[in-house]
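Open question from group meeting: does this chain pack into something compact, or does most of it stay loose? Before anyone orders reagents, we agreed to write out a predicted structure and look at it together. Recording both the input and the output here so the notebook holds the full record.
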Amino acid sequence: MRISPPFGYKQVVPFQKTHKVRLLAAGEAPEFVREGAAIPISHSEFVPAGRHYPIVFISGDGKSFNAVAIVGMNTKENLFVSDGHWAGETYMPAYARRYPFCMARMNVNQVEQKNRLICIEQSAIDENGEAMFDAKGQPTSKWQDLERLLGEYETDLERVREMCAIVADYGLLEPFTMQAKLKLEKGGGSMQLGGMHRIAEKNIENLNAAQLKNLLRRGIMARIYVHLLSLEHFGRLLDRKAARGNAA
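C-alpha cells returned:
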C-alpha cells in the first residue's frame, strides 16, 4: 500500500487511536504554508476567503484546475503569517486548520482506491502530545471536532473540483499574470506572479441556456462573482507587502 501525501505534507501515515499528537496552537500556521503564496480552498470557503484574499485557479497539467487563495506576491512568501501565526481577524483556510491530519489517497497494487484514509503527518506523532482517544478507546471531543472537519472538508473539496472541471469545460478560464511595482516611498521593487487563471467575463456571454442554468443550480455562478470581486485584493497584498518591507 502506498499513500500519496497531499500538497505541503512530507510523510503521512495512517492515524491510529493510540497515537498522541502534537497539535498546533490556536492561530499557529503549519510550516508549509508559512512560505507559500497560495493555499487551496474548498467550495464553501469562497465567501470567507474572498473577503480577504484574491481567489484564482491554478493547474499543474493545464487540464485539471484547483481553486486557491493567494497570500503572497512571491512564490515563497505568505504575507498573512508573522512569527508562525496567521494574521488575526483574517480567515485561515481549512487546509491549514486541519493540519497535521488529512484525508489521503491510497494506492494498492498501483490502483488508486476510492475511499480516503485518515492520516497524520508522521513528525506530529509525539509521546508527549495529546491523546485523541481516552483509555477506553472513546474519542475525545477535540477528536470528534477534527474528524468532522476532515470529513466535511473532503466532501467540500470534491465539490470545488467539480466546479473547476465545469468552468474549464465551458471555456471560462483564461491565464493571467499579476505584475506590480511598489512606489519608491514604499520600498520600490517589481513583482510578478504568474501561472494563474481567472474567469473571463466575456466568455460567460457565450454560454447557452443549459450551461447557465447548470452554473446557477450548482451555486457556481455565485462563486464566479465572488472570485471576480476577490481579485481586487491584489491591491491589499501590495499594501501588506509594502508594510512588511518598511518594517524590515
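Observations to bring back to the group:
The CA atoms of residues 9 and 121 lie 7 Å apart.
DSSP finds eight helices and 14 strands in the chain.
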